[in-house]
Write a structure and sequence with these properties.
With about 240 residues, the protein is α/β, with parallel strands linked by helices. The protein has a domain of about 60 residues. It is built from 8 helices and 10 strands. The strands form 2 sheets. A 6-stranded mixed beta sheet has the order 6-7-8-3-9-10, sandwiched between helices. It has a 4-stranded antiparallel beta sheet with strand order 2-1-4-5, with helices on one face. β4 and β5 form a beta hairpin. The protein binds adenosine-5'-triphosphate. Adenosine-5'-triphosphate binds next to α1. The site of adenosine-5'-triphosphate (ATP) has 10 residues, from α1.
């Protein structure tokens, strides 16, 4: 029988009873979550179940209606430089400069975060994300999958202890999706904590230590990927 994974004692990210209400509508009921260095929690659930809302709250991009979020003991605030320097987010919206090439986007992010030897590191990340041949292209000339690869690459060129990803697999072809699983495993091996919103149960099974399934803003199930996704809940993803 699969062992039930315990929540970590030394959490890098600690959500306590966070909820969110828009107007009269409660889209997220109180959720608590701990995530330690080198661990991945996958958030699963049908469309509109509250996954992105929870991730935005975890990232400090949105304030919870109730509850608290702490990163390494500090109240989560995306404007706090101590947090910005250590937390990388790939959200569900595409934001880029129309007049900067792929390589220039990466350079901008790397320089802003004070990355040493940025040029060499950028060439490595470009090759790793399959973007080497599109390095001089402007965003308007990228395919949707290449744009997604650029958003991931922007997170990879900067320092990070916590990686928050909202459906990073979207628009990626099967090969690129397999590489994404390898990339996330490498992040975890490097001690990065990963909070992953995904619709792909296979990705969750491959990389997550724990999964949390949301339904109508409530926690429907949580535990090891094997225990949660072995039965009827496999249908929450693709
Ligand atoms: N700014 C907002 N104002 C009002 N309602 C919102 C807002 N943002 C999200 N919602 C609602 O909150 C609910 C949860 O949305 P959320 O984006 O968190 O779901 P999700 O699980 O990430 O969905 P998907 O899988 O489709 O991305 C939805 O019903 C959505 O319509």
């Amino acid at each position: 029988m699969a062992k039930t994974p315990k929540e970590p004692l030394n959490a890098l990210l600690h959500l306590t009873g966070v909820s969110r209400t828009y107007g009269e509508r409660q889209v997220l009921h109180p959720v608590s979550l701990k995530l330690a260095a080198g661990q991945c929690v996958a958030l699963l659930g049908h469309n509109g179940s509250g996954k992105s809302t929870l991730l935005r709250i975890a990232a400090g991009r949105e304030r919870p209606t109730s509850g608290t979020v702490r990163f390494d003991g500090i109240p989560m605030d995306e404007n706090d430089p101590r947090i910005r320097s250590r937390v990388a987010v790939v959200g569900d919206t595409v934001a880029c400069y129309p007049d900067l090439s792929v390589r220039e986007h990466l350079l901008l992010v790397a320089v802003a975060h004070g990355v040493a030897d940025a040029h060499a590191w950028i060439e490595h990340v470009l090759a790793d994300r399959g973007l080497a041949e599109r390095a001089d292209a402007l965003p308007s000339a990228l395919s949707s999958g290449q744009m997604q690869a650029l958003l991931l690459a922007c997170a990879m060129v900067r320092p990070r202890d916590l990686l928050l990803l909202d459906e990073p697999e979207q628009r990626l072809d099967p090969d690129a999706r397999r590489q994404l699983a390898g990339l996330l495993k490498a992040e975890l091996a490097d001690g990065v904590a990963v909070l992953l919103v995904t619709h792909h149960t296979d990705l969750a099974l491959e990389v997550a230590d724990r999964v949390l399934v949301l339904e109508d803003g409530k926690v429907l199930a949580k535990g090891s990927p094997q225990s949660v996704l072995s039965g009827s809940l496999r249908g929450v993803g693709r």
